[in-house]
From TrEMBL:
Keywords: Coiled coil, Cytoplasm, mRNA transport, Nuclear pore complex, Nucleus, Protein transport, Translocation, Transport
Taxonomic source organism: Cisticola juncidis
Annotated family: Belongs to the GLE1 family.
Function in brief: Required for the export of mRNAs containing poly(A) tails from the nucleus into the cytoplasm. May be involved in the terminal step of the mRNA transport through the nuclear pore complex (NPC).
Main location: cytoplasm
Protein name per the record: mRNA export factor GLE1
GO MF annotation terms: inositol hexakisphosphate binding; phospholipid binding; translation initiation factor binding
Gene it is expressed from: Gle1
């Protein structure tokens, strides 16, 4: 509910603003320790990324309430946004976007970690689980860049708005595609903020969609084996439908004005 989200936002904002906040029966304040504020910014940013790789990866719609709170906090407390991006880029290099190359002297285990895989006791997580986590983090990022906290003053620009999404998409399409990962990330990104990018960039956006269909999807196909076609097929269908309809659908779960009255 909108009212619940406002409570969460106010509590986080009060904590970061140095006011005492009640939690688990006691009042806490960042002023209680010289590094209190820095610690809270760090842990809060880390927590938002964890929501992306956990909650959002399983429940796509949850990207929007989480993103709108972070967007508002980012506006008032830019340090949280900076640390959030640092955590996000480390956990999901594709959010830069960046495909880390293997460097001589790097162990395979370490390289897997750099690519974003979780490695425990030399066991690398399964590909499906890895893709799900990356998907959740990209969806959260794509939701953040288009949302603003509705109760802010809105005088300034969004601290990390759609221009960053436009840049991400352009840079993504300049990278040589990877099997599995590229098709999934593009589909996630376009499903979540394609509609917002279409409204903002108009004809330039449609040129990009046409480029994806004619030039980039064949390049993804070239590196994709027959067993990895699922996500690529969904991306193909999505792009084709959008080009035919000359419309990108609104993302599922977007927060409507009526949400804030709940």
């Amino acid at each position: 509910a909108g009212s619940k989200l406002r409570e969460v936002f106010d509590k986080i904002n009060n904590l970061l603003s140095g006011k005492p906040v009640q939690t688990e029966g006691q009042a806490v304040s960042v002023t209680q320790h010289p590094q209190g504020l820095e610690f809270v910014c760090y842990k809060l940013a880390e927590k938002f990324v964890k929501h992306g790789e956990g909650e959002v990866s399983f429940h796509h719609d949850s990207a929007f309430p989480i993103a709108v709170v972070l967007s508002g906090i980012w506006e008032l407390h830019p340090r949280v946004g900076d640390i959030f991006l640092a955590h996000l880029h480390k956990k999901c290099p594709y959010s830069v976007p960046f495909y880390p190359a293997w460097k001589e002297g790097t162990s395979m285990e370490e390289y897997q970690r750099i690519l974003g895989y979780e490695v425990h006791d030399s066991k690398v997580e399964e590909q499906d689980h890895f893709l799900k986590r990356m998907s959740g983090m990209i969806r959260l990022y794509a939701a953040i860049i288009q949302l603003r906290w509705p109760y802010g003053n809105k005088q300034g620009a969004h601290p990390h708005g759609l221009s960053y999404g436009w840049r991400w998409l352009a840079q993504m399409l300049n990278l040589e595609p990877l099997a599995d990962v590229t098709a999934m990330l593009l589909l996630d990104f376009l499903e979540v903020c394609g509609n917002a990018l279409m409204k903002q960039y108009g004809i330039q956006f449609w040129k990009t969609m046409f480029f994806i269909q004619k030039s980039y999807i064949p390049r993804i196909e070239a590196v994709t084996s027959s067993g990895q076609m699922g996500c690529l097929s969904r991306l193909k269908n999505f792009v084709q439908k959008c080009l035919q309809a000359e419309e990108i659908p609104l993302p599922k779960g977007i927060l409507t004005p009526s949400f804030w009255r709940t």
